[in-house]
Known about the structure:
Order of helices and strands: EHEHHEEEHEHEEHEHHHHHEHEHEEHEE
Largest sheet: 7 strands, parallel
Structural class: alpha/beta
Radius of gyration: 24 Å
Amino acid sequence: xxxxxxxxxxxxxxxxxxxxxxxxxxxxxxxxxxxxxxxxxxxxxxxxxxxxxxxxxxxxxxxxxxxxxxxxxxxxxxxxxxxxxxxxxxxxxxxxxxxxxxxxxxxxxxxxxxxxxxxxxxxxxxxxxxxxxxxxxxxxxxxxxxxxxxxxxxxxxxxxxxxxxxxxxxxxxxxxxxxxxxxxxxxxxxxxxxxxxxxxxxxxxxxxxxxxxxxxxxxxxxxxxxxxxxxxxxxxxxxxxxxxxxxxxxxxxxxxxxxxxxxxxxxxxxxxxxxxxxxxxxxxxxxxxxxxxxxxxxxxxxxxxxxxxxxxxxxxxxxxxxxxxxxxxxxxxxxxxxxxxxxxxxxxxxxxxxxxxxxxxxxxxxxxxxxxxxxxxxxxxxxxxxxxxxxxxxxxxxxxxxxxxxxxxxxxxxxxxxxxxxxxxxxxxxx
Length: 431
């Protein structure tokens, strides 16, 4: 018999960019436990603040509860014992790649183990973390079965609903983006779809299987990655020809069916990562993907291209390279967002340092301590852009769009615009 929704207690495992907005929305209608192993993150949210800037603070504070006392509301915890009271578990932990660009399922499997310790008959485990097709059934389910001693699709069930969070986007938010859902049986698929339909105003799409839902997420970002790699390769070609890529795109864009993608750095937790998950699965089946990996190679080398281009421009203007000061504006993977996961700005930084330059990075959106902890880079505040031989606009934060770049030119400095958003009369180079 299909389980009822009204008496369900939901636990969201992982309260980052994906998990927190989901927990807040569900808590408007259900009893929700927001769980994260990071005690600092829990304490931050209990205070009603969110360093990811993804959650509406008024909504967060309105649903916060201190327990299961009421029929709806959000209880926050880092104590695994609190998971015992839930009967729907939604996993939203990160799924990055390792140094060999292979899927790193460490957090996903740890979350599965933790759920397995409290899993009960008729419980449902729904995964939202980005994975390759088959991962839920082939990697996560065996962990759930082993730890819990229960049988899949007999004692407990699974769903998969890929996250579609776009960090920093305040228009296309969780509830306004159509949600793909799936379940391990037809009955569970219907239940999972109904569950998400209760909070997603844009509607849901019920995929025919877990694997289809998993694959849909993987190809969403792989497609975008490949399209951007095409224009990035065009930028490399047009640079040698001596013409501006954006001028070419403007001309080609006059045709009604031309897709006007822009060149640039491709980072973040999705576009720069998900294609490797799809490639990993393909290779495990004996197929070596050509298009997907070629796109990744192009995009992964754009930071090096930018750094080398800046060096050449500096030489052309008579700057000494060794010991010269260069400023990089922006460190996040996209504008007006604090998320610096898998940022490719670090590639520019590292390449310039290899040339012996002194490189400063400024970004008003990041938590400076976190950047230093992860990358060993100290973020500086409000730099004087006239003190540098070259200034690279890497991320188009609003704060950077109003700087007086003319003063850099007056002091014989170089300006390189990776986003093509500065007056082109002021820049020596741009993508």
